[in-house]
Structures are given as C-alpha cells and as structure tokens.
Amino acid sequence: MKKEELFQIYKDCIVPSYTKVPLVFVKGKGSYLWDIDGKKYLDFFPGWGVGNLGHCHSKVMCAIRDQVSKLIFVPNNYHHIAQAKLAKELNFWTQKPYKVFFANSGAEANEAAIKLSRKFGQGRFEIITFIDSFHGRTLAALSATGQKKYQEGFAPLVQGFTSVPFNDLNAVKAAVTDKTVAIMLELVQGEGGINIATPEFVKGLRELCDKHKLLLIVDEVQTGIGRTGTMFAWQQYGIEPDMFTLAKSLGGGLPIGVMMAKTAISDMLTAGTHASTFGGGPVVCRAALAVLRAIQKEKLLKHAKDSGAYLCEALNNLKAKHVHIKEVRAMGLMCGVELTVPGKPFVEACIHKGLLINCTHDRVLRIMPALNVTRGQINKAVEILDTALGSL
Ligand SMILES: Cc1ncc(COP(=O)(O)O)c(C=O)c1O
Prior knowledge:
Blueprint: H1 3-13, E1 25-29, E2 32-35, E3 40-43, H2 58-70, H3 81-94, E4 98-103, H4 106-121, E5 126-130, H5 139-144, H6 148-151, E6 161-164, H7 169-175, E7 180-185, E8 188-189, E9 195-196, H8 199-212, E10 215-219, E11 243-246, E12 257-262, H9 263-266, H10 282-297, H11 300-321, E13 325-331, E14 334-339, H12 344-352, E15 355-356, E16 358-360, E17 364-367, H13 375-391
Parallel strand pairs: 3-15, 5-6, 5-7, 7-10, 10-11
Antiparallel strand pairs: 1-2, 2-3, 4-12, 8-9, 11-12, 13-14, 14-17, 16-17
Helix pairs in contact: 2-10, 3-10, 11-13, 12-13
C-alpha cells in the first residue's frame, strides 16, 4: 500500500482524535524503527512510554509466540498459570503485601483504584489530585486529571475530584475535608512536563494520609517498570502507597493495566464488584513476565540509573550552549528539557534527522529512551538535538 492511499484511509475511516505525524512504521528492533520508505530512526520515546525494553525484545517475542501456540485466552472466572506467576513476580518486586487487579490500560487501572477508594471510604469519596497531572481518558480518570484542556467538551465530569498545586503540601492540607478519601499523584508528572515530586512533599503526603485515614494512590503508569531507575518510582521516596497503578511498558507492547492494592484494602473488591473480560489474559501475562525477567537478567535498573545520569549531564551541557533551554529535569531515564519557546519545531527538526522524541506541555521536550539504550545511541541523539537546537 502506498503512503498516500494509507493516509486517505485514515482520513476517511478513522476517528481523528489523534494529532498525527506523517510517518508509517513497518519494523522495530531495540532503539530503532524503520519507516515504509526504509529510513531508520533512533527512537528516544519508544511507544509513548511503552517501550522500556525497546522494540521487539527477543524474550518478549518468544514468550508471546509460545503462549499463542498453546492457549490465547482464559476468562477470569477460571485460573491460568501465567496470571498467577505474574502476580507473584509483581509481589517479588514490591517486597510488600499487595494484591493485583488486572485491567487493559492505564486509565482502567486508575479507574479500579478510584472505585476501590470509594468502597474503602463508605461515604467519603473525594480524591485530591494535582494540577498538571494526567491519569487517562476514561471519564473518572479524566476527572482526576488536573488539566482543563483534556476535559473541555466532556462535562459533566465525575464529581469528587479537586486538583491542587503539585509539591505544595499546605495546599493539600487545606483541601482535605470530611469527605476526602484519597490523594492521587504521579511522582514524576509525565504529560504535565516532567515535574518531579520532592521527597519532603511525598513524605508529607504519606503522613497526612495516615493522620486522616486517607489512601495514598501513586499512578506509576509512566514512571513504573524501571523508568526512573527503580522498578517503581515510589521505592525512591521511602514511602509505601496504599495503591499504585501500572500499565504502558509492563506488557512489552501488549495492552495491560494493573492496580496493586495493599492486602488490607484489596479484599474489599469482593466477587462481582469489579471485573475486566480481557484483564490479565495469558498472552499479555507471559509478555509481562518476560519484561520483568529481562529487566532483572539484563540489570536494566542500574543501567537506567547510570544511562539517565549520563544523558542528563549531556543535556545539561547542551543547556550551557543553547539559550533556548531553560531547565533540564530528570529521574533515571525520564528526562524533560524545558525550552523558552514552543518545542514542536525542534521535534520536527529531530524527526527530519532521524531522531524521535516528544514534546509535552508545549515547551518540554520529553526524552525517554529504552532502558537498554547504549552510550553510543545517547551520543548520537544528543548530537542530533544539538544540531536541531542550533539550526532553529
Ligand atoms: C501517568 C499516566 N496515567 C495514566 C495514563 C493513561 O494510560 P492509558 O493511555 O493506557 O489509558 C497515562 C498515559 O499516558 C499516563 O501517562
């Protein structure tokens, strides 16, 4: 099929809810993608946060192939081995007593956390969230999201969400009412522009939750699975959330969402109170197991920390050179370069030179390469960024 024909089909037959880049990809391996014309790209934003192992990791491909040849689907009223193994493996990584609810996306995982909060609250239902947060596009997740631009046109929203300034503990304290049941946050706001929660803020939230019997919900949809240098970002803050959610890269490219809840509250979701037909099916669970094992076997948490520090230093060197760079923010391999001008032209210049990155919040270049990225690939990306920044 020719590109022009394909673009026409998209125009005629697909809901236009995405801002599209005119690229058609046909192949991926590690940190590289190839388009339909055979051009090779270095992908420093693989799969919008899905590609923590890069594209088509061999162990993930093997696991999927093997499972597909045996049994593709088992509904959740029965049992299957891959789901049990994945739940156990996730618990190995938390080292704490959490139970797992399986869904299919980040938004669904957050919906599960919101619903469990309401069960726990027994009449208390308000959840405090944060300005510039992002929790997904389903109606409750959208209502939790602290960005008006995503909510416009969809009123009335689900009631019971209040957004307050991020990293402002006094604002949170002032927002607590006798109806508050939970506080929900991303430890690094991704869509909001790579804003990192301070340790004092997060410790303060935990104390506030303990004092008022509130649940602390951490949305790890983007920060989880090694992105920040630990399996879950909360492990770097010396706190334990009551619930946390995972999605994106856990499935190695297949759709998955996970809500992890402390055992004491998880059992409130009794039989029949919440469900997902596809959640935690055998194929995606095998893929997720392969992802977690590859992270361990290839020592990717340490690699992400080291590579993140290396990339951050290189980006700060660019800052010293380019007046358009206001600030570099990073935790592990979750990096943001805030510009003084809109980032779209820089992203386009990078694409032209064979580097894929993202721009969020208008002015923040979001750079999140695969955890197994090499120094050589980082050097190449920084070189392209340097040229792109210099040329505009
Ligand atoms: C922090 C966070 N939460 C939730 C979501 C929603 O995930 P999904 O698109 O899988 O529903 C996203 C997606 O970008 C996200 O970044």
